[in-house]
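Predict structure. Chain length: 196.
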Amino acid sequence: ILALTLDPQSPSTVYAGSTNGLFKSLDGAATWSNVSTGLFPREVRSLAWGTLAPAALYAGLRASNSFGGSNDVFLTKLLPDGSGLEWSLAMGGRRDDQAFAVALGAAGAPTVAGWTDSTNFPTLNTNGFLRATNAGKRDVFVARFTPDAGALLFSAYLGGKAHDYGYGLAVDTMGSAYVTGRTESKDFPMADAFQP
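Prediction complete.
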């Protein structure tokens, strides 16, 4: 199991993301059914509930290779009962791109984080530490979409000259994103660092 979440409207309903798809239990995890219809690829790495419409479940999936790379990033919003897709999108560059986390802010805009080897990963509205270009070998990426995923609000690289990985993400009520992961870069961007 790669991701696990309880339905906020029905605590006995549990969703689990795995390498074999999305599973749902209506009896507190005693029995499970596969609700992966329409999901491709099937590897569900993260799950998040919508904030404006609590019945909206978002799934972050391992990628395919739609953009010429070995893997691309997917973001999918499931129908409230898990019976299908409300929308699904993919993004990536010419190399390996993988999403590991998804979170929603108060306005319901999904933010995705992971890592990319691509030097042509889609970027938009970058500034400061959020870069429009890959700084090294592998960089963290952070991307935010409109609540209906109809448009990209921002997408950027974050990293230094070595390998950097984005594994976790949270978004506060003001919309600020908190990204965590691992860096091998001695020049990873720092501001007000506790340990310089």
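Summary: The mean pLDDT is 84.
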